[in-house]
Amino acid sequence: MPPTPVYIICSPGLQVGKTLIARLLSEFLLLKNGSVLSFDINLREPSLVDYLPKITETADVTDTWGKMQLMDRLILDDGIAKVIDLGFHAFDEFFKMCIEIEFVREAVRNQVAPIILFVGSADRVSSRSYEVLRHQIRAPALITVHNQFVLRGELPEAMDRGPVLRIFALPQFLKTYIDRLTFSFTGYLRHEKDSTTELHQWIWRNYTLFRDIELSLMRSARLGARR
């Protein structure tokens, strides 16, 4: 059996589109697997739990109890993929905790595969944070997300060297449409009969990108089992 994936969507910056990506990924995993457990670690509203309340729990990493509760869930090989929407305010504390408890090593030991989706930005804080993560998390477990809603130009060169997930920008009127709390990506695919619409193709393309990440994870697991 492949390891249980834990996707950590993160950035030290504000308003880079983390929750949008967490929504897309959570809905894809729910469609594909029939189950997913998402965690919302955010201060701002609306956040992931507002969009997907049936599959999302809030989590806190500001105290020891909250950290223990979250980590116990993340290192559990229960076959249910996890998605973490990590707010900018918790970025440093979360990864400091990961180092202290050797989260990556413990996860691998328990047949859990952490995957960091770092949402890239052009500011210096993001560049420094990425470099720190790059020395802690090796590719292919560290993937840069180029969200073209936010970063219209090229990614910083250092972030573009490893695996990159590119989220294309939609026209503003469609962006406003998908930002509604009642909007569902999977629901749109099911009910929109015209598969040639720009939004239909955008959702399908992103779901395909997530599928490719899962396939890569499975290939890595098979290679590891042969060694």
TrEMBL record:
Organism: Bradyrhizobium diversitatis
Protein name per the record: CobQ/CobB/MinD/ParA nucleotide binding domain-containing protein
Domain of life per record: Bacteria
SUPFAM superfamilies tied to this protein: P-loop containing nucleoside triphosphate hydrolases
